[in-house]
Specification:
α8 packs antiparallel against α9, α18 crosses α19 and α21 packs parallel to α23. This protein is an alpha+beta fold. Helix content is 43%, strand content 26%. The chain contains 30 helices and 33 strands.
């Protein structure tokens, strides 16, 4: 909407300013270009800034980068005469970090000519609402799974009589194939019973109460079952009745048993002796009069051996009074309205858990007792306990999961606050775990995590907690410490414990760990802050060289934010393909002919700068972005090589470096095949460079991959040869055609005899193995002359050409000679 601005009086201005500043809604006034003219107190508090820090600033400074374009378009439309319609959800960046979700509505103030003078924006903070919505969604998912795990039909009926929520067992009972959360319906029950259900439900919907009753119900299969209904009012958070919850138990079998008992004792015996459940008859004092043959396979006793004993002689001492009370209730009310649970010792000494329903047949001349139908639910109880365990423990290692850790950490903080002690959180990340996982397989990686969890358990006290955060991350909670530096003792024990080799699939593997430490109360007064700061300290330690522990400091947050900014920028660059290839020729040192070209990637930043690969490739590998970048480099390099051929240049090999993460990706071979097919480049014109350390991981999968690439015609070269400190046996096993002598040896080849000897040894070894050599980093005529004299055939470096764009290199490729012999 818009209004026409008139000149207000001074008093009106003062009143408007007071109302503007005191309202609980965030209000701002910006000009049509998006510059804040003023902001009220609520808006400043929302973003964490003082008014002076906001006024005069562009909205772009405070707006989340993903929302800037949309806001700029809105301002453009306002300047063009179009007023905003409705409200918009957007994000601001809070001072000190973090996002603030708001709902924005705006009013445009225009002059009599219709030109926009300024825009008044109103903002409502939605941040907590969004967090609550996420938590509510997670709770709803858990509730759905929990309801469907319950074997009994369960449903919810609101005050309007709609059955809006019910579980899978309910749907299977009544049929219809409905989802467990479906469009609310009224016709769940048969019309003949609907009125009686409504009558019984009415008191529960008026005030908090509960009821239990039975009713015959038709099922989806067309038969009729006797159902036991347990219903209770559902009271919402305001204390008002919002509906009722019903649980249905099929008691048809119990009713059939009752009718059979009343018909005759003979029929009773036939039914009970064929039942898998235990049928027992007790007198009013609990003395056993009859036990069905099921006693043999359920508890290992002969039925005759228990007759005459009091049931209390068999039941667990802690459950005797529960059973006696249930017996009294049955005698008084004729039947049990809910099962009673108790434990009985098996003949082998183990305790078994039973669930039993009883019926008063003392007046029946054929029975003269209370009949109990008891079912062994031990396995079901174990499963229930297992489900509860899985909800709070990691399935792989059995350690507490994040949820249980947070609960324990909250309790530890509360105890520490009362006792004036400290709590330490140690965040542990395994170094090089991904390499083991990628090269040896996930099964081996899982076994490594299990062994790590056992070693961690040996480094802490019984009262401490070890939890698995996920992946290769673990968290240790040290409870009730006298002083914070005691955490370093545990951290060093953990590092020492991880340093010993792990035996995995018959081989020894080595890993190390990086540990970050955060202390209560210095580094945070709540569980979430302590865990976040311990994670930050761990990440800082990794950057210092791994295999170490670091205490959290406030300065670490600055580095983390800087890295997050760089990672965010790199992700945008990957999505927008903000990369360019530079090409450096490889020269025949005898003729000066250009025989190949190496593609080198550069990142073009938003400020028109260029980032070299050494500054962003490690981050790309760590975040998993390297596969997308690598595929783009391969595709663009192959496309350029094919384009040069189309322009009339002779075919030359395009050399492209491979990251370790790319090389270990299972879809790598398919990706190379697809790129060659899409670009039309002959595989013999592609050369892939892999590092010596990659080649050292001679898994069967890696050897098979290299052989398939070689069979396609792709050339393979070892990059940075001589720096890997490895066995040279791989040169005989793998289809390698070329060794690239690392530039660190070439740099001082004319002044350092050791470097000269190394280069000569590599050249001679390559000749004996019928491999080509290429010297990297050739920068002087002296280096060139010495390399030629020692028999090196190919060179690359600034002496011939720096890495340049394709259009700059084209004339050199056409000339095809970069120096005079």
């Amino acid at each position: 909407m818009s209004v026409v601005a008139n000149e207000p009086s001074r008093t009106e201005l003062d009143l408007a300013r007071e109302a503007f500043d005191r309202t609980g809604v965030g209000l701002v006034v910006i000009n049509p270009e998006g510059v804040f003219r003023t902001a009220n107190r609520s808006f400043c508090v929302m973003l964490g800034y003082e008014p002076a820090e906001i006024e005069g600033q562009s909205f772009r400074r405070f707006t989340h980068p993903d929302d800037v374009a949309r806001d700029e378009e809105a301002l453009r439309q306002i300047r063009a005469g179009t007023d905003p319609q409705g409200s918009v959800d957007k994000r601001f960046l809070r001072k000190g970090g973090g996002e603030v979700w708001v709902r924005r509505s705006a009013t445009v103030v225009r002059d009599p000519n219709g030109q926009a003078r300024f825009v008044v924006g109103a903002f409502i903070d939605l941040t907590e609402q969004r967090r609550s919505d996420q938590a509510l969604e997670q709770q709803a998912h858990f509730t759905r799974a929990l309801l469907d795990a319950i074997p009994n039909p369960v449903y919810f009926k609101d005050r309007a009589g709609r059955y809006g929520v019910y579980n899978r067992a309910f749907d299977e009972l009544f049929g219809g194939g409905r989802n467990w959360i479906a469009e609310a319906v009224h016709d769940m029950f048969d019309g003949r019973n609907a009125s009686e259900h409504e009558a019984r439900d009415k008191p529960l919907l008026e005030r908090p109460a509960s009821t239990t009753y039975e009713m015959l119900e038709p099922t989806a299969e067309g038969d009729t079952r006797q159902m036991l209904y347990n219903k209770v009012s559902f009271v919402d958070q305001r204390g008002e009745v919002a509906g009722l919850i019903g649980v249905i138990t099929d008691v048809t079998r119990y009713k059939e048993t009752e009718r059979a008992l009343e018909a005759s004792e003979a029929r009773f015996r036939v039914l009970t002796e064929s039942s898998l459940d235990l049928i027992s008859v007790l007198d009013a004092d609990g003395k056993i009069q009859y036990q069905s043959p099921a006693l043999r396979h359920l508890l290992g006793y002969e039925p005759a051996d228990t007759v005459g004993k009091n049931v209390s002689e068999l039941i667990h001492q802690d459950d005797i009074e529960t059973v006696r009370a249930a017996l009294r209730r049955i005698i008084e009310s004729r039947q049990s309205i809910e099962p009673v649970e108790f434990r009985i010792r098996h003949r082998d000494g183990m305790w078994r858990t039973f669930e039993s329903l009883g019926m008063n047949c003392l007046s029946n001349p054929h029975i003269h007792g209370v009949v109990f139908n008891s079912r062994d639910v031990t396995d079901r109880k174990v499963i229930q306990q297992r489900i509860q365990h899985l909800a709070y423990h990691d399935n792989l290692t059995g350690l507490p999961n994040r949820s249980l850790l947070q609960d324990r950490l909250a309790h530890s903080i509360a105890r520490a606050e009362r006792s004036n002690r400290k709590v330490a959180v140690l965040f542990i990340d395994l170094d090089n775990f991904k390499n083991i996982n990628d090269t040896l397989g996930h099964d081996v990686g899982d076994e490594l995590l299990r062994q790590v969890s056992r070693r961690l358990s040996e480094c802490v006290r019984l009262e401490d907690t070890i939890a698995r955060q996920g992946g290769d991350e673990f968290i240790v909670l040290l409870d009730s410490l006298e002083e914070g530096r005691g955490a370093s003792v545990v951290a060093q024990k953990i590092l020492n414990g991880l340093r010993a080799p792990f035996v995995l699939s018959g081989t020894e593997q080595h890993v190390s760990g990086s540990v970050g430490i955060a202390l209560y109360p210095e580094d945070g007064r709540d569980a979430q802050t302590l865990m976040k700061n311990a994670d930050t300290a761990m990440f800082h330690g990794k950057g210092l060289g791994k295999n170490t522990y670091q205490y959290f400091t406030a300065q670490m947050n600055i580095a983390v934010k800087r890295r997050m900014t760089l990672e965010s920028a790199l992700r945008r660059a990957v999505n927008q393909k903000d990369f360019v290839l530079h090409y450096q020729p490889q020269i025949n040192l005898e003729s000066g002919e250009i025989i190949a070209v190496e593609a080198l990637v550069r990142w073009k930043t938003e400020d028109s700068g260029t980032v070299m690969p050494g500054d962003f490739i490690p981050l790309a590998e760590e975040t998993g972005l390297i596969n997308e970048i690598g595929e783009w480099v391969l595709r663009e390099g192959c496309r350029q090589a094919k384009e040069w051929q189309t322009m009339g240049l002779p075919p030359r090999r395009m050399a492209i470096n491979l990251s370790a993460r790319q090389f270990s990706d299972r879809g790598f071979l398919d990706m190379v095949t697809r790129v060659l097919s899409d670009t039309g480049l002959d595989p013999v014109c592609l050369e892939l460079e892999i590092t010596e350390s990659q080649v050292m991981r001679q898994t069967e999968g890696m050897i098979m991959l290299l052989n398939k690439l070689s069979e396609m015609g792709v050339q393979l070269a070892i990059d940075d040869f001589g720096t890997g400190y490895s066995s040279l046996s791989y040169l005989k096993r793998l289809p390698i055609q070329k060794l690239k002598i690392d530039q660190s040896f070439v740099r001082d080849i004319t002044v350092d005899p050791n470097d000269t000897a190394i280069v000569v040894a590599i050249i001679n070894m390559a000749k004996s193995l019928d491999l080509d050599t290429i010297a990297e980093g050739v920068e002087t005529a002296g280096q060139l002359a010495l390399l030629r004299s020692k028999g090196c055939r190919v060179g690359q470096g600034f002496y011939f050409s720096a890495p340049v764009r394709a259009e700059v290199l084209y004339p050199l490729l056409k000339q095809n000679n970069l120096y005079v012999k």
